[in-house]
Design goal:
It is a single chain. By secondary structure, the chain is of the alpha/beta class. It has six helices and 14 strands. The protein folds into two domains: 13-86 and 345-387, no CATH class; 102-342, von Willebrand factor, type A domain (Rossmann fold). A hairpin with a 4-residue loop joins strand 1 and strand 2 (44-51). The radius of gyration is 22 Å and the shape is globular. The two termini are 28 Å apart.
């Protein structure tokens, strides 16, 4: 059975959206707005985070401070507003977390989904992930937060569930265990029946299955978070995978990832990534043979290239949706803290696309969007673009 996201534009389940080009009214709770990415024939609206040289959020910019380019061509900006997601809309200080059955979308202060790619993580990485996620539950999970945790070894036949309880989330993190890959652990095999013969080696098929497992679980979490208002985040904890795929069609994995990016963008989900391996030593070690000098000279380079290739997928998914990847860092808990700090607010920016960009007569293609800030020393992170299919 062919994967359902081979063609990027066949996987988009788009919801009806009514768009206003006016600046957000101050008395409207931004979290009651529709998903962040909105697309119609007349307006494209997306979110962006602006930071200064020290990584601090900049919140005082207006329409004249931004420039937007679609496929390299300047576009007229119609509206800019800043959404302060850190505002305590409901004072829940000192109160216990709401039971899951009682919580409403408006009650959520931050929404985070965590996907742990445990199928191919080392024993040490599982330990670091379990400890770091536990520390997040103990130190950073506050009343009003909603979170979920799923693993790539957990299968796809049950919908992930959000919890308002730090204790419940920590219990899920504590259940993380080192997983030896086997035929029963990779339920993704059912989804790619018939593909295996195309691979020239079982190792290629194994790596391919791992990549499919991670992408599938992220897709499930994105779909679970889509109905919630505001800007949501999904964190992939993984030792990475190559963008180029494994042994068959090099474009297959890239196409699947691009489809996932567009799906996340339209759901208002920002993807982040953490490599639990931390700082990896790629130089020679005592275990290396002292044989052929020429081969020894290439070992370090080979290891560095393999590490970079494995992290390319993490950088890509995060960068294309406005997030970032935490790599080469031994501070897992600090990485989670950075991600949580990034949820404090964002700009909603709308622009008028060129005529014929979106519509039933337009050829389906990916439109690259770039936002620039005129003020020097500031950086902006936003989504990379969209397929020109209007929300229906």
């Amino acid at each position: 059975m062919r994967r359902r996201f081979v063609l990027a534009f066949t996987v988009l389940a788009l919801s009806a959206t009514v768009i206003s080009a006016q600046r957000a009214e101050p008395d409207v709770d931004p979290r009651e707005q529709k998903p962040i990415f909105r697309l119609s024939v007349s307006l494209v609206q997306l979110d962006a985070v602006v930071t200064d040289g020290k990584g601090r959020h900049v919140t005082t910019l207006g329409r004249d401070d931004f420039e937007i380019f679609q496929d390299g061509r300047s576009q007229p900006i119609t509206a800019v507003s800043y959404v302060d997601a850190a505002v305590d809309w409901h004072d829940t200080s000192g109160l216990p977390p709401l039971p899951q059955e009682d919580w409403r979308p408006i009650d959520g202060r931050r929404v985070i989904g965590v996907v742990v790619d445990d199928l191919r993580m080392s024993f040490e990485s599982i330990y670091y992930a379990r400890r770091g996620l536990g520390q997040f539950a103990d130190r950073q999970f506050v009343p009003g937060d909603r979170a979920l945790l799923v693993t790539t070894s957990g299968g796809y036949r049950h919908a992930p569930e959000l919890t308002a309880s730090a204790t419940t989330f920590k219990a899920a993190a504590n259940r993380l265990r080192y997983s030896m890959w086997d035929i029963t652990a990779a339920s993704a095999l059912d989804a790619i029946d018939g593909v295996r013969d195309a691979f020239d080696a079982s190792e290629n098929f194994r790596e391919y299955t791992f990549a499919v497992s991670a992408l599938e679980q992220i897709e499930n979490v994105v779909d679970a978070l889509k109905p919630l208002p505001g800007r949501k985040s999904v964190v992939l904890v993984s030792e990475g995978f190559s963008i180029g795929g494994f042994g068959v069609d090099g474009n297959y994995i890239r196409d699947a990832m691009q489809a996932l990016v567009d799906r996340a963008n339209r759901a208002g989900v920002v993807l982040y990534a953490i490599d639990p391996r931390g700082l990896v030593v790629t130089g020679l070690t005592a275990a290396d043979s002292v044989g052929n000098p020429a081969r020894l000279a290439s070992i370090s380079s080979m290891r560095a290239n393999a590490l970079r290739d494995s992290q390319d997928g993490l950088r890509y998914l995060a960068g294309e949706t406005g997030g970032f990847a935490v790599i080469n860092s031994n501070d897992f808990a600090g990485g989670i803290k950075r991600i949580m700090a990034d949820q404090q607010g964002y700009y909603l920016i709308g622009y008028q696309p060129e005529e014929g960009t979106v519509g039933s007569n337009a050829r389906v293609e990916f439109k690259r969007v770039k936002i620039k800030v005129k003020q020097r020393g500031l950086k902006v992170r936003t989504r990379s673009g969209f397929y020109n299919i209007a929300n229906e």
